[in-house]
Write a structure and sequence with these properties.
Layout: E1 9-15, H1 19-30, E2 35-38, H2 47-50, E3 56-57, E4 66-67, H3 68-80, E5 85-87, E6 92-99, E7 108-113, E8 118-126, E9 132-135, H4 143-149, E10 152-153, E11 166-170, H5 174-183, E12 189-193, H6 203-210, E13 215-217, E14 220-227, E15 232-239, E16 245-249, E17 252-255, E18 259-262, E19 278-280, E20 291-293, E21 298-300, H7 309-327
Parallel strand pairs: 1-2, 1-8, 2-5, 8-20, 10-17, 11-12, 11-17, 12-13, 19-21
Antiparallel strand pairs: 3-4, 6-7, 7-8, 9-18, 14-15, 15-16
């Protein structure tokens, strides 16, 4: 990566090093743009690295299935061939225009980080994923105590940590269902409880789960986590229709209850936004000149917000190519086909 001084002006700065941001860096490199990427976390990959590095992803073109951490590795390799400036463990908290855009002259945008650093750029592509997020926690006896000791978890960093364990999964969304399927061959056994009969997950995954060895219990919910002071030994659960209670054995409780997410400091930059999304047009442009958004953080003014990696790749491609034309009006938005380029 490059080591230019912080006051150098970049053609494009990409905010967020998840899959959408990393693919944006690749496309910016193909357009010969001087590129910087800033990530609030100490490593690249976004949610794929933090939440589910060892989960398989099935809907990335060209891969029947790929581990999240392997996809990140390939995206980083793809992006780094253009030698971008990479800034990790740095959260951007402020945006202001040093120079406004005028005919034929792009703006200069100053970004300020929580470390007191400033970054100058002509355009900004926000690929901040779901923004600042934290897991929804459950206020039940024993949860906080054994969360500190590792017996209650919200994320899976290594499947090997669950080898031979009796696992209780709490939740009914994609994460709960996917981890039931991904961990069934690692654990001693899995019980998955959900407070409703219906699951909020991909239909095919739910069908696969119902045909797996995972014991599914609905509509049950967690009442208490038990342990010996150091390790989890079981949990009390309740059927919320019959009020029946049971205590079942467990070594680990995995809580997949969703996340609280917000735009954080981005919400104060004057962008048209909702609590979690930035509104964009068909060119991925926001209401601020030279500022674009792509991926999970972007809400099209027309059409659905999909929240898929495949959509993020497409939006990053659009945003970067539109940004190229914005700072260099002689350049076409369409970049040409990569098969015709010498890379």
């Amino acid at each position: 990566m490059t080591t230019d001084g912080q006051d150098d002006i970049y053609d494009v700065t990409i905010l967020g090093a998840g899959p959408t941001g990393l693919f944006g860096v690749f496309y910016a490199g193909m357009r010969e743009m001087k590129t910087k990427i800033i990530e609030a976390l100490p490593e690249m990959g976004g949610q794929l690295t933090v939440l589910y590095p060892e989960k398989f992803i099935f809907d990335v073109a060209g891969f029947p299935k790929v581990l999240a951490k392997d996809l990140v590795q390939r995206l980083v390799q793809q992006a780094e061939q253009w030698d971008p400036q990479i800034c990790l463990d740095e959260r951007v908290v402020g945006l202001e225009y040093v120079r406004e855009a005028s005919e034929g002259v792009p703006p200069i945008i100053k970004l300020t980080s929580d470390k007191g650093q400033t970054h100058l750029t002509h355009t900004l592509v926000i690929t901040a994923g779901i923004g600042a997020f934290s897991p929804n926690k459950l206020d039940r006896p024993g949860v906080a105590q054994y969360e500190e000791k590792g017996g209650v978890a919200y994320f899976v960093k290594k499947k090997a940590d669950f080898r031979g364990k009796r696992l209780l999964i709490v939740g009914g969304g994609d994460s709960a269902v996917d981890w039931g399927l991904n961990l069934k061959d690692w654990t001693h056994d899995i019980t998955l409880i959900h407070r409703r009969h219906e699951f909020r997950a991909h239909e095919s995954s739910v069908v696969e789960l119902r045909n797996s060895p995972v014991q599914i219990m609905t509509p049950w919910e967690l009442l208490e986590v038990h342990g010996d002071g150091e390790h989890v030994t079981g949990a009390t659960i309740k059927n919320n229709e019959t009020e029946e209670q049971r205590t079942i054995p467990a070594d680990v409780v995995l809580l997949n209850l969703g996340f609280k997410a917000s735009l954080g400091a981005i919400a104060d930059w004057g962008l048209k936004s909702s609590r979690r999304h930035i509104f964009v047009d068909g060119f991925c442009q926001t209401n601020l000149p030279g500022v674009y958004a792509a991926g999970d953080v972007a809400q099209p003014n027309e059409g659905p917000q999909m929240g898929l990696i495949a959509v993020g790749f497409a939006q990053a491609t659009i945003a970067v190519n539109v940004a190229k034309s914005f700072i260099d009006p002689k350049s076409k938005i369409f970049p040409g086909h990569s098969s015709e380029m010498k890379i």
